[in-house]
Amino acid sequence: MKDINEKYIAIVLCAGFGTRLKPLTNYVPKVVCPLAGKPIAFYNIEKFLNAGFHQVHCNTHYLSEIVEKELSAVSKKLGYEKNNIKFWHEETILETGGGIANIYKNICKINQKNINKDFIIVSGDIIADFSIEEMIGHWENKKENTDALMCTKKLLQERKDFTIVSNDSEHVLGFGQQDLIGKNEFSYTKKLFSNHQIIKGTVLENSPIEKKSSVDLFYRKILSEGKLIDNLNFDEHRYWFNIGTEEEYLEAISYFKKETNNHPANKMFYTPSNLKLECSIDKNKELYSLVRNLSIEI
After folding, report:
1. End-to-end CA distance of the chain
2. Global pTM value
3. Which listed site, 93, 122, 256, 258, has its alpha carbon 20 to 30 Å from 144?
């Protein structure tokens, strides 16, 4: 049986601006904001490392030096090797699709064997009780030849960027209102993309490096060519947080605070070194104070 590193490449996306979390993210990139002892993005990095990956690839752009410094420092503190994380800086932000394509093209230049590997991608600002091994198991035991896998979860409120999934939950059929045209309303379910995905290397090989989302750069093309996208349902009983807004961040902090209160071994040790006292001039003083003092409170 092939080693996991011979078949897959792991990517955690870390290049975003974190605009909706300003003013906090004026000083600290969202992906290295603290959550129960670790930077947000490190949760997914560590999931890959614990699953057996030797290296996790991360794209960077906004405050990239801080992202690299913080993730590398925590990785070292937790006993991981320096080369367990490989950073790929984007001078111009490429969005999710362009960032994935850029990493693919670069690592294939370094080693041609990477062309035949499939890519597992998770967003750095998603915190979820989700198993990398479960994704791989579903992918390797799928019933049909599909070009990609997307994980989706129940849509709790109406939104424009919904994912259209077949009623049998087998396949992704499209994205947003425009793709509902001509579809029987009883043939699909609107879902939320959990930001866990697997894409065949052959798809990435034929994709340009463009500033586009993964939906627009990869998935619409797959469907337009009559090919299939596999769907994997996210278990609704597991936690899932998209750290996009102050409210979502505080919700995640509250959840993990409850989880760690009774476990002394899980006490917080991590506060970003770049979290400055400038919060006094910003409106969001309460969030700054909470984040600065997480190491005391948890």
Report:
1. 43
2. 0.90
3. 122
Instruction: Report how far residue 6's alpha carbon sits from residue 146's, in angstroms, rounded to the nearest whole number.
Output: 20
Total count of domains within the chain: 1
The token pair at 255 is: 């959840």
* Contact predicate 27/273, CB 8 Å: no
- What 3-state DSSP class applies to 50? helix
Q: Say which CATH number the domain at 222 has.
A: 3.90.550.10
Residue showing tokens 């062309």: 115
Average pLDDT, 10 consecutive residues per value, the chain (298 residues): 89 96 87 90 97 98 95 94 97 97 97 95 96 96 94 93 96 95 89 98 96 96 97 95 92 85 49 47 50 43
Tokens 């909706």, residue located: 20
- Distance between CA atoms of residues 235 and 105, nearest Å: 33
Instruction: Give the domain range for residue 239.
Output: 4-297
**Token pair recorded at residue 100:** 């994935």
Q: What are phi and psi of 168, to 5 degrees?
A: -85, 0
